[in-house]
Write a structure and sequence with these properties.
alpha/beta, Rossmann fold, 5-stranded parallel beta sheet, about 45% helix
Amino acid sequence: MIAKKINRHYRAVAEQLMIPVYFKETEFKHHTVIVPISGAQAAVINAIKYAKALSRDVAAVYVSLNPAEEAALRRDWERYGMGVPLVVLDSPYRSITTPLMNYIDQVRDKYKEGVITVLLPEFVPSKWWQNLLHNQTAFIIRGLLHFKPGVVIISVPLHLQK
């Protein structure tokens, strides 16, 4: 019974992955790059530089949980944001993922024949175990985006020294 279901699953996947079934002659009409940020820091600027190499339509997206931190970020962004627009999303319930996912859905609705690339700025500590202490929000965002059609997820690592 289980073996038949597994076999049926593999056949269905193989059929959907066949090029003639999937192929459409149209290319993506638009490419938007979204960089979720938690502040102005080296890992974010590294991701912004990469984003600008991918598309002209780039936005840094910040979910505001604290007005004072938002004001400081706006000042820093003017100086270090390299001309990339800063989109600030309010989160009255202190949720980062809900406003971000809603924003991505709005962009997806605007460019139905386009593709969205979400660049996740991450820093890589010098020791493997230190990574367990960092980048947890990026891990959650990646998990949520994995199931959104038309969205590509890229981690942009910045390797730290000792």
